[in-house]
């Protein structure tokens, strides 16, 4: 009864504080398919606007223009690694407009020459790619399959906890909006299924089978253990470890200090109290963990599209037209692939010439995210493509 009570309490708090996250977790099969689409990579949400001007119209024009520049900077940081941050292209407003597909507005408020809003800016992938290639900037386009987080919390002087009792670290993940970058992260509900899949000790030990079971519950490609320890004051020390096929080794520790008082006041929405310092620290820690994951993934999948490509002969076993179409679509959608030319087909096999940029490991990673594996044939004359759902 205690276990059920804890789970019910967790579920109620989860639905009350983050109904969107709960809905996502309860529809993971559909969400997994949606996350396979790359369109979200070029969508920058949550760009806040607070601008003033001679009148409401002038305030809106200035605020929206600045928000578009902010959105482009965030997109650039998403696609590149930290060392290239100073290579952000400086482009004129009319050129920036040609990169943007559309803009949506939420929570608009006018009055007294002040404009408040929250914008979502969607960029055109082809136009952004041409700009990056023109400037010779290496960037990543391959999106990771989603990771589900196992947020282990260790209070000062207490034992690590994952699902049982209060876990404010799990609450912080549930409260944050799902990131729209190259690494989608899912916050688990902490329900009976999660409890049965893995516990805190298994997560900290890196139990690959248990972590795979947790990932499978959410249709994810793997799991990330984020072990948060309370430090001095409200600070946190967080160990991060990823367990997912196709991922580079990620095992690191970061420290997150409490935000200063003026930062807390700035975060408060109009008419609301500033957030609690510990709650704000955990929110910052969630963002830092996502940043670490994004940087590791991007660094591993950086591609120079302005350089020459490599052509490989590949064959794929097929059982019919559906198999052929699925393989073709997966190849065409993999970011390193420049072209995939169908050379011949038989009743049981299709042969392709595939031109790609980057190295073979980046190609393997990109194809794995799209449901294909590749392996060198026994005679080393070609590579064999296989659908992962057919193995």
Low-confidence parts: 1-38
User: How many DSSP E strands?
Assistant: 13
How far apart, in Å, are the first and last alpha carbons? 41 Å
Topology pattern, helix = H, strand = E: HHHEHHEEHEHEHHHEEEHHEHEEHEE
What is the general shape? globular
> Averaging pLDDT over every residue, what do you get?
84
Please count the helical segments. Answer: 14
* Biggest sheet architecture: 5 strands, mixed
Strand order of the largest sheet: 5-4-6-7-8
Helicity level, as a percent range? 25-40%
Radius of gyration: 23 Å
Going by helix content, strand content and strand pairing, the class is alpha+beta
Proportion of strand residues:
25-35%
Note the topology.
Blueprint: H1 2-17, H2 19-26, H3 28-35, E1 43-52, H4 56-79, H5 93-99, E2 100-111, E3 114-123, H6 125-134, E4 147-154, H7 168-175, E5 185-186, H8 192-197, H9 200-204, H10 208-217, E6 222-230, E7 236-243, E8 251-256, H11 261-267, H12 277-300, E9 310-317, H13 321-333, E10 337-345, E11 349-356, H14 360-369, E12 372-376, E13 383-387
Parallel strand pairs: 4-5, 4-6, 9-13
Antiparallel strand pairs: 1-3, 2-3, 6-7, 7-8, 9-11, 10-11, 12-13
Helix pairs in contact: 1-2, 7-12
